[in-house]
Amino acid sequence: MTRRSPFRYFKTSPEIIRLAVMLYVRFPLSLRNVEDLLHERRIDVSHEAIRYWWHRFGPMFASEIRKRRVDGMRSSRWRWHLDEMFVKINGERHYLWRAVDHKGKILESFLTRARDKKAALKFLRKAMRKHGRPQVIVTDKLRSYGAALREIGAAHRQETGRWVNNRVENSHLPFRRREMAMLRFRQMRSLQKFAAVHASISNLFNSERSLTSRSNFKLNRAAALAEWRGLCAE
């Protein structure tokens, strides 16, 4: 049975919708910034239309990216880097837990109100249920990690030390820039949704520019763009 196109009720072409969603999620741009950039290309859409497209198609694109890369993500069991970053929702502090593999791919993002053993345990179980157990788990010296790892019998896998967790610390930066452009978040659900979509799109376009030659980087970038343009195609 042929799958029905998710764009079938939209007058705007799928190429424009994909471009608008990519610009908004991937780069630190506001809705009105994306509207202006599209206007430069003689594409007349409102920022509210872009907002609707992001809410409608962002999770759909992210889900398809994850399905296409499921084998690669399941093989990321050598070394994980875990860290939590604080985010504010209506002035209240929350914590976004993130797991990153040795290549810098974001495996899991999980939002909680607290930063205790219960939250760390829930985050670890969710990540391991999807991706299996890694050989090494690199964390900072937050005691919640040690308590949670002892609970699940993985304390011997933990590794801590100065600068050893820079991989995940650096992965926070694109999300921080994106958060500032969005003037922070107002609901936990919207933050969790955006974090999941942002992680998938970041993984798709993460070409490890500093670790590859210019020619390989251009090939990887072209392949990522080609994959993006084929998402949810008829």
UniProtKB/TrEMBL annotation:
It holds the Pfam family DDE_Tnp_IS240. Keywords: DNA recombination, DNA-binding, Transposition. Residues 78-206 form the DDE domain. The keyword Protein biosynthesis does not apply. One of its GO terms (biological process) is DNA recombination. One of its GO terms (molecular function) is DNA binding. Involved in the transposition of the insertion sequence. This is Putative transposase. It comes from Salinihabitans flavidus. The lineage of its organism: Bacteria, Pseudomonadati, Pseudomonadota, Alphaproteobacteria, Rhodobacterales.
